[in-house]
């Protein structure tokens, strides 16, 4: 249903299932940037790092301002955890 366009708000799941993120996100800094995007980080021009129709905008990750939804400390904690265990679930 997602591929057909009937439920475009779940388009991000196609990106998650594709393995694209696992290939592109390797370092702790990249993991932290990914988490920042998922929690609403925006570029200085107001562009989102993530949207539900297409997923994570990998090209924008380094430009994102810090999200207001989680603290720097919390992002650091989860970046450390995902660095140890990987971003793909077991």
Which terms would index this structure?
single chain; 90 residues; mainly alpha; two-stranded antiparallel sheet
Compile the SSE list and pairings.
Blueprint: H1 12-18, H2 20-24, H3 28-38, E1 50-51, E2 55-56, H4 72-85
Antiparallel strand pairs: 1-2
Helix pairs in contact: 3-4
Task: Tell me what you see in this structure.
The structure is a single chain. With 90 residues, the chain is mainly alpha-helical. It contains 4 helices and 2 strands, in the order αααββα. The chain has a two-stranded antiparallel ribbon with strand order 1-2. A hairpin with a 3-residue loop joins strand 1 and strand 2. The longest helix is centred in the C-terminal third of the chain and has 14 residues.
Average pLDDT number:
90
Number of strands: 2
The biggest beta sheet reads: 2 strands, antiparallel
In order across it, which strands form the biggest sheet? Answer: 1-2
| Order of helical and strand elements | HHHEEH
Gap from first CA to last CA = 25 Å
Helix content: 40-55%
The count of helical stretches stands at: 4
Poorly predicted tracts of residues = none
Radius of gyration: 13 Å
Secondary structure class reads mainly alpha
Beta-strand fraction estimate? under 5%
The rough form would be described as globular
